[in-house]
TrEMBL record:
One GO CC term, this protein: cytoplasm
Regions crossing the membrane: none
All copies of domain Calcineurin-like phosphoesterase, residue ranges: 7-220
Top-level taxon in the UniProt lineage: Bacteria
Similarity remark: Belongs to the metallophosphoesterase superfamily. YfcE family.
InterPro entries: Ap4A_hydrolase (IPR050126), Calcineurin-like_PHP_lpxH (IPR024654), Metallo-depent_PP-like (IPR029052), Pesterase_MJ0912 (IPR011152)
Protein name: Ser/Thr protein phosphatase family protein
Organism: Candidatus Sulfotelmatobacter kueseliae
One MF term in the entry's GO annotations: phosphatase activity
Pfam family name, one: Metallophos_2
Length: 256
């Protein structure tokens, strides 16, 4: 890989959860650049605050399906009732300026300036709305990719997949606690290609309720996966007050 050494903060699937975003930013190590992999809004009670904060953090973005749904770029037929209800609530809540900004987010893949071997997508490199959940889902893009590292979101599952000379496999960071802030380092190898998901900041779905994010050190070629507790009760209470589907709030406690 080329370009000056950068420490890149990777945020994905914040889903209008301001409490979770704030907690991630509070524990994040020093970084040079923020990359946002989409689904800034949808589900949570703070679409404007999270959009404002995301815009300020800047610079590199990919749009997510919930960003499209909330801004009318996608019809809601593909959404379940809870997601569609939240998308309509979000659309009514967003300021005209934030609606316009979200609507103009770019379609993935987006390349990373100065790092031609890195690309950013929301779903899969082949289809922005496709879920890469299993090794089987990951294989087709992995074997056809020309770039060595793709960061993706959409599944809300932290970890990823790789292919190298001897095979292919998936991996998940292994944490030692269930309630504290901690991180797990993952060393990239030059001989492999990777699909890596930093996890969901605001709607984790891998059985761990803590907010998830990652930091990529381009010099050391290390991805640091992070989890951090956040003010869950506040996020939930504001979702109840907003009359969002209650299940969207209660499921945050289980990370499912
Ligand atoms: Zn999402």
């Amino acid at each position: 890989m080329s370009g000056a050494a950068l420490r890149i903060l990777l945020l994905s699937d914040v889903h209008a959860n301001l409490e979770a975003l704030d907690a991630c930013l509070a524990v994040a190590p020093a970084y040079d650049l923020v990359v946002n992999l989409g689904d800034i809004v949808g589900y949570g009670a703070s679409p404007n605050e999270v959009t404002d904060r995301s815009r300020d953090l800047g610079k590199v973005f990919v749009r997510g399906n919930h960003d499209k749904a909330a801004t009318g770029l996608m019809d809601l037929e593909d959404f379940n009732v809870m997601a569609a209800t939240a998308a309509i609530w979000t659309r009514n809540e967003l300021t005209p300026e934030n609606l316009d900004w979200l609507r103009a987010l770019p379609h993935g893949p987006v390349s990373l300036p100065d790092f031609p071997q890195v690309q950013l997508v929301h779903g899969s490199p082949n289809d922005e709305d496709e879920y890469v959940v299993s090794l089987g889902d990951a294989l087709a893009p992995l074997v056809t990719l020309t770039v060595s590292l793709t960061f993706f979101g959409h599944t809300h599952l932290q970890g990823g997949f790789f292919v190298n000379g001897s095979g292919a496999d998936g991996f998940r960071p292994e944490y030692r606690t269930v309630g504290k802030a901690e991180s797990v380092a993952f060393q990239l190898r030059t001989s492999a290609r990777y699909l890596i998901n930093p996890g969901s900041v605001g709607q984790p779905r891998d059985g761990d309720w803590r907010a998830a994010f990652a930091l990529f050190d381009t010099d050391a070629q290390v991805v640091h996966f992070h989890r951090t507790p956040y003010n869950l009760k506040s996020a939930q209470d504001r979702m109840f007050e907003a009359k969002l589907p209650p299940r969207l709030a209660t499921r945050l406690a289980a990370g499912r």
